């Protein structure tokens, strides 16, 4: 049973002048949003790392090294947060009215502090200069390995072998071993530097919270799931993996890596430095930060079992709130504890064959469209839902959900006689609907494996939010409405992670999450409604798609 958690007390009042601050330290920028109790954004600022902080010499917010290493300067995150607050101050932001603060940060990035850095956090003093200046020399490693890093392939193989295979890793940690996941990057740090000079191991999210409270803060349970280090069920560090990360030194690692804490817990009140410099109330509460995807789940209003958000872009993504860890682990996708729902989880499925693949089909069969989608879209609406049994799996690159190597497209027809693979469809117009139904059917079948009964017609269903470039196409939205048998909502909200962080602050101060989501949804609109006559058609199509995917895995699967 889900329970929405918040700190009971008198900090929240829908009628008060109280304000709430949410940060988002992403790959390329740092945002700060100040909202009121109704989630209206009253002040905002943004710092672009490359343009506003050129002294760190980043490109796209990072630095690319040898052997797949990608890092960002740890000190840059401090500088960016200070500059974001400076810009709010220039706007006249009344910091003394801010009662709750939390933040979002790019997932998987690691920060390593030495003893000097931990002391500097506690001793920050506005009379001694900026926080950036006072933390100089306080990092056990000056650069933070970030999510783009691909240097830990061997570590992933070794962890997979140690735990007994990819499904064992997934069952234990919520994901198969991933190169970018922090546990492997921390292991790399231990191998190269040891732990003697390290006083704290943090994610960028917990580092942001630590800056604001003046003490080392634990990683929250939602962001911690992106490390291949936490037991997804107990929400504690797994002892066997700790020993894998720091052989013979796992007890020392525990000393510098506190156990994860619930995402909604209060970390502490704001450190005096920030009250001195900006005028925050000394009683302003700081709540544990979380990862950007975790906060985007909240910012998109996914707070009830079965809520789904689909993003259709260069890559496609499906986020879904689920009630528990699936009994059978999947070899793809990722599972995280929900950042506002006790006992709840959310899943993330990522697909590499997104817009580029849809454009490949458009160019091959509708060259007259050039850079537009007119004839492609007309072909979708001209063909019936279910494509008269024609289904396909299309590739412009290797797929990761599930892991299928790049190669020829798969096409098939299904009906009373079962599934039959074909080289081509009888009409080119079939390809337009097939490439769109491919993504909707893939998401449906994969989500049903995570949460059986998700698309049953009975009972209250969650919301379906569709975002991304392709969401502007009405024909595509109608396909998703019919395949999922839910109304499709679209929103102009472009501040998903930052707004999600601000929402978490409002919620942690006592606001009702359902009320907050209702306020959020008031800005969204229903763009497509399902044709209930298509429900059985797509139930059969989903089954056929799953069978075709199994054939594709047998032919070109990478696991």
Q: What are the salient characteristics of this protein?
A:
single chain; 559 residues; alpha+beta; seven-stranded mixed sheet
What does this structure look like?
The protein has 559 residues and is of the alpha+beta class. Helices cover 36% and strands 21% of the residues. It is built from 20 helices and 27 strands. Strands 2, 3, 4, 7, 12, 13 and 14 form a 7-stranded mixed sheet that branches. A 7-stranded mixed sheet has the order 17-19-16-15-25-26-27. Strands 5-6-10 form a 3-stranded antiparallel sheet. Helix 13 packs across helix 18 (496-508) and helix 16 crosses helix 20. The two termini are 35 Å apart.
Low-confidence stretches: 6-10
Structural class: alpha+beta
How many DSSP helices?
20
- Radius of gyration (CA) equals 24 Å
Percentage of residues assigned to helices: 25-40%
Assembly category: single chain
Mean pLDDT: 94
How much of the sequence lies in strands comes to: 15-25%
Number of extended strands: 27
Shape: globular
Distance between the termini: 35 Å
Fold topology:
Blueprint: E1 3-4, E2 19-25, E3 29-35, E4 41-48, H1 49-52, E5 63-64, E6 70-73, H2 74-90, E7 98-105, E8 110-113, H3 115-122, H4 131-134, E9 139-141, E10 143-145, H5 153-163, H6 166-173, H7 182-193, E11 200-203, H8 204-213, H9 221-224, H10 239-245, H11 250-256, E12 266-269, H12 272-278, E13 285-287, E14 290-291, H13 292-299, E15 308-312, E16 316-322, E17 334-337, E18 341-342, E19 345-351, H14 355-365, H15 374-382, E20 390-393, E21 399-400, E22 403-404, E23 410-415, E24 418-422, H16 429-450, E25 464-467, H17 474-484, E26 488-491, H18 496-508, H19 513-521, E27 524-528, H20 535-556
Parallel strand pairs: 2-7, 7-13, 7-14, 15-25, 25-26
Antiparallel strand pairs: 1-18, 2-3, 3-4, 5-6, 6-10, 8-9, 8-11, 12-13, 15-16, 16-19, 17-19, 20-23, 21-22, 23-24, 26-27
Helix pairs in contact: 13-18, 14-16, 15-16, 16-17, 16-20
């Amino acid at each position: 049973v889900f329970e929405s958690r918040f700190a009971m007390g008198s900090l929240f009042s829908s009628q008060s002048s109280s304000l709430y601050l949410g940060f988002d330290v992403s790959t390329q920028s740092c945002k700060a949003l100040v909202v009121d109790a109704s989630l209206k954004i009253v002040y905002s600022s943004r710092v672009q790392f490359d343009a506003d902080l050129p002294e760190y010499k980043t490109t796209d917010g990072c630095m690319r090294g040898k052997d797949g290493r990608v890092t960002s300067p740890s000190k840059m995150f401090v500088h960016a947060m200070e500059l974001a607050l400076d810009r709010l101050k220039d706007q006249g932001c009344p910091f003394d009215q801010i009662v709750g603060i939390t933040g979002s940060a790019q997932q998987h990035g690691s920060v390593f502090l030495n003893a000097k850095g931990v002391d500097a956090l506690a001793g920050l003093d506005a009379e001694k200069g900026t926080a950036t200046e006072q933390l100089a020399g306080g990092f056990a490693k000056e650069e933070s390995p970030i999510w783009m890093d691909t240097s830990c392939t061997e570590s992933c193989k070794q962890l997979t072998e140690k735990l007994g295979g990819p499904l064992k890793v997934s069952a234990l940690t919520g994901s198969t071993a991933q190169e970018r996941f922090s546990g492997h990057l921390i292991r790399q740090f231990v191998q190269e530097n040891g732990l003697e000079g390290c006083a704290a191991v943090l994610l960028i999210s917990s580092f942001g919270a630590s800056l604001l409270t003046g003490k080392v803060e634990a990683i929250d349970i939602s962001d911690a799931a992106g490390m291949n280090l936490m037991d997804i069920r107990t929400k504690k560090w797994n002892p066997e993996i700790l020993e894998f990360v720091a052989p013979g030194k796992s007890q020392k690692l525990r000393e510098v890596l506190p156990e994860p804490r619930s995402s909604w817990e209060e970390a502490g009140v704001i450190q005096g430095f920030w009250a001195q410099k900006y005028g925050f109330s000394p009683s302003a509460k700081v709540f544990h930060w979380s990862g950007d995807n975790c906060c985007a789940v909240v910012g998109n209003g996914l707070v009830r079992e079965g809520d789904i958000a689909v993003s259709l872009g260069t890559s496609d993504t499906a986020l879904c709130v689920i009630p528990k860890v699936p009994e059978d682990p999947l070899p793809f996708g990722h599972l995280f504890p929900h950042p506002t729902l006790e006992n709840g989880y959310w899943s993330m499925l990522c697909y590499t064959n997104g817009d580029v693949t849809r454009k490949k089909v458009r160019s091959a069969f509708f060259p007259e469209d050039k850079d537009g989608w007119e004839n492609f879209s007309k072909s979708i609406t001209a063909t019936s839902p279910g494509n008269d049994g024609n289904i396909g799996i299309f590739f412009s690159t290797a797929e990761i959900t599930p892991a299928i190597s790049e190669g020829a497209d798969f096409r098939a027809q299904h009906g009373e006689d079962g599934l039959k693979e074909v080289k081509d469809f009888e009409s080119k117009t079939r390809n337009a609907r097939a490439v769109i139904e491919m993504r909707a059917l893939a998401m449906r079948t994969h989500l049903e494996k995570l949460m059986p009964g998700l698309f049953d017609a009975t009972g209250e269903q969650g919301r379906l939010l569709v975002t991304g470039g392709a969401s502007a196409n009405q024909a595509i939205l109608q396909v998703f409405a019919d395949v999922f048998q839910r109304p499709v909502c679209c929103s102009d909200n472009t501040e998903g992670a930052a707004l999600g962080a601000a929402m978490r602050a409002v919620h942690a101060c006592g606001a009702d999450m359902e009320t907050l989501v209702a306020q959020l949804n008031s800005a969204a609109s229903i763009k497509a409604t399902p044709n209930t006559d298509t429900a059985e058609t797509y139930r059969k199509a989903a089954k056929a798609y799953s069978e075709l995917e199994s054939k594709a895995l047998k032919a070109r699967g990478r696991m």
